[in-house]
């Protein structure tokens, strides 16, 4: 099937397709867009955060919207095609108003290390599939299945690591840079069809995944570091990110296209200040 023309019409409720919807930023976005602009939610997740997923489902239903969770590894083209087919059976064609790529899975380490943190080929491929390539896989699957509603919004999530060189984060930085290029090119390809593709950049937020990786002591140090790095003196919250996504899903943000939107609260400005004035 072909792509959705800009003047096409959608029938029935409109949906938000959210990769990584069971916890953290993805779950917060699911809850927010269920309230405003009032979208049903099709959430893709790996099944790791059952309690958080259940709370998200309850919140979406409490807002009067439908929610369907689909468990899969969202990083492969096969899962994108299967997920698009499942969503089309559930919601019908031209039903996806918002697509959010909120999955992560980067390997940390060094390219030239001889130890366990060596970034070998399998880890590189896996990181790029999860953090970057999957955005393209799902965009292709949505177009092929004729799932994009008129003036649909496709949104990737970015962080300031593309502007810094922090230890162990080479693959995060590189894959996010690739994602930014994918967003720009897809914005050009989908723009004539009436759709918008953007990238939302924000700093570190406290999520279950972060708490799983770091000890309570390390998390405390992380929060202290962000107090120095951000002019507001604190970390951003997933709720703040989610509320801004509802703005991007609305008509007032319809002219954003191919943009990398800085929602870091001035974090990158303060990083430069810390370098110059340690």
Description:
By secondary structure, the protein is an alpha/beta fold. It has a single domain, classed as NAD(P)-binding Rossmann-like Domain (Rossmann fold, 3-Layer(aba) Sandwich). Helices cover 45% and strands 15% of the residues. The chain has 9 helices and 7 strands; from the N terminus they run βαβαβαβαβαβαααβα. Strands 3-2-1-4-5-6-7 form a 7-stranded parallel sheet, with helices on both faces. Strand 5 (148-158), helix 5 and strand 6 (196-201) form a beta-alpha-beta unit. Helix 3 packs parallel to helix 4 and helix 4 runs parallel beside helix 5. The termini are far apart. 42% of the residues are buried. Mean pLDDT is 90; it is low at 1-7.
How do you describe this structure in short?
By secondary structure, this protein is an alpha/beta fold. The chain is 45% helix and 15% strand.
For the record, the CATH class is: Alpha Beta
Number of strands: 7
Largest sheet: 7 strands, parallel
Q: What is the gyration radius calculated from CA atoms? A: 18 Å
Percentage of residues in helical conformation = 40-55%
| Whole-number tally of structural domains | 1
Individual helix count? 9
Q: State the strand order across the main sheet.
A: 3-2-1-4-5-6-7
Spatial gap, N to C terminus = 56 Å
What fold name stands as the CATH topology?
A: Rossmann fold
Q: What's the overall geometry?
A: globular
What string gives the helices and strands in order?
EHEHEHEHEHEHHHEH
- Please state the average pLDDT score: 90
């Amino acid at each position: 099937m072909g792509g959705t023309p800009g003047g096409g019409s959608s029938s029935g409720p409109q949906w938000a397709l959210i990769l990584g919807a069971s916890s953290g930023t993805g779950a917060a976005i699911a809850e927010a867009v269920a309230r405003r602009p009032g979208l049903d939610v099709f959430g893709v997740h790996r099944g790791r955060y059952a309690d958080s997923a259940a709370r998200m489902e309850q919140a979406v239903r409490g807002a009067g919207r439908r929610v369907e969770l689909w468990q899969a590894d969202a990083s492969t083209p096969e899962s994108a095609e299967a997920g698009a087919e499942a969503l089309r059976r559930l919601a019908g064609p031209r039903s996806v108003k918002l697509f959010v790529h909120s999955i992560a899975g980067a390997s940390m380490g060094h390219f030239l290390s001889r130890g366990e943190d060596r970034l070998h080929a399998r880890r590189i491929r896996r990181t790029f599939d999860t953090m970057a390539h999957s955005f393209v896989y799902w965009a292709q699957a949505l177009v092929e299945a004729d799932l994009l509603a008129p003036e649909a919004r496709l949104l990737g999530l970015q962080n300031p690591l593309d502007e810094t060189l922090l230890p162990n984060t080479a693959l995060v930085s590189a894959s996010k840079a690739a994602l930014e290029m994918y967003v720009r090119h897809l914005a050009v390809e989908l723009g004539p069809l009436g759709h918008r593709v953007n990238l939302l950049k924000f700093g570190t937020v406290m999520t279950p995944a972060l708490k799983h990786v770091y000890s309570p002591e390390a998390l405390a140090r992380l929060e202290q570091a962000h107090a120095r790095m951000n002019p507001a003196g604190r970390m951003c919250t997933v709720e703040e990110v989610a509320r801004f996504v509802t703005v991007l899903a609305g008509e007032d943000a319809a002219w954003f296209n191919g943009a990398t939107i800085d929602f870091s609260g001035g974090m990158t400005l303060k990083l430069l200040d810390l370098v110059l004035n340690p």
